[in-house]
Task: structure prediction
Amino acid sequence: MNNQELDDLLAKLHKEIEGIQSVDEKGQDLLRDLSSDIQELLGRTEEKKAAPSMLERIETSIDHFEVTHPELTSALSSLFTILSNAGI
Result:
């Protein structure tokens, strides 16, 4: 996956996160951190590498939102898979 495709996926995910209204306090914290991680990755011009802490937050978010926000969970799962497979 090239940087443009990853940027497109990150932008889509960021839009999904921004549209979520009703979440608990832990969910709000997770979304805020993920949003920050995504913005940081989008701002990079060179190779897109996620910090291990971002991958952990994605996993935690998948577990947290699995039942309440299935579309977000699906997008997060795709992102996690892409980043993991790319060795990022």
Remarks:
- Residues 25-43 form the longest helix (19 residues).
